[in-house]
Structure formats: structure tokens, C-alpha cells
Amino acid sequence: MLKGIDPVLSPELLMHLSAMGHGEWVALVDANFTAEMLRHGKPLVRLPGLSLARVTQAVLSVFPLAEDVAQPAAYMQVSDSAPGHRTAAQQEVVRLLEEQGLPDTKIEAVERYAFYEKIKSASLLVQTGEGTAFGNAMLCKGVILC
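Predicted structure:
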């Protein structure tokens, strides 16, 4: 344990988040996501039993969002849904991002199959225990200014 570090952030997850550079993406995926198949040799950290929102909260506690990217956060859009529709899990992630100062306009809803393509650009996959469908999000790392 470390003082001031969210206990959800395991040593393995902290190592991978710390190693990521500016402009790299982390994918936070649900329990049903085919993470093993889509990881393409990238690190996969599993956090079973934890919701997408809880893991997002922990990651955002140490992870700056990119300011030079038009939409540094994304989530998988619910198939065949009305524009703007979000699941409860997605709404909670958006709320957490807005608390970090990210306006809704900088959060992208990505069509399901386009999300599978986008995830190929991720440097790290974190599989949560989120049990609701479409419980997947991506975050782009920004710069920490000293």
C-alpha cells in the first residue's frame, strides 16, 4: 500500500499507467469484453468485481487527460440506440470525466465495431468486472507539467 494511492490501483496497473506516454490510450472494458483476443500483445490487467465507474475513478486519480486531443475520452455507443443515449454505467463515467473538467463535447460516443477498431490503438487494456452491456471506455493520457 502507498499513502494517497487509490487501493484499486494495483502495482501492475500503476506500472503500466506510469509507463504510458503522452497521447497513448488506455481501454477500460467490461467483464464480457473479448479482451484476450483483442489485446494484440498489449498488457491486460484484470480487476474483477469492480465496476467501470470505480475503475475509471481510480485511474483518473493518477492519469491526466490529454488537452491537445479533440476528444480524449470515449465510450462504446449502445447499438441501435437514439443519439445521446447512455447506460447508467456510461452516465457515471461521463459524470466522473466532467468532475475532472472535461466537457461533454470532448467525450466521444463510438459505434460498437468502430470501438473495436479504436481499441487497437490502446497501449493498455484494463478488464473491469462491469456486468452491464457496452460498459467500455477509453482515455487518452495527457502531460503532467512539473
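Summary: The chain has five helices and six strands.
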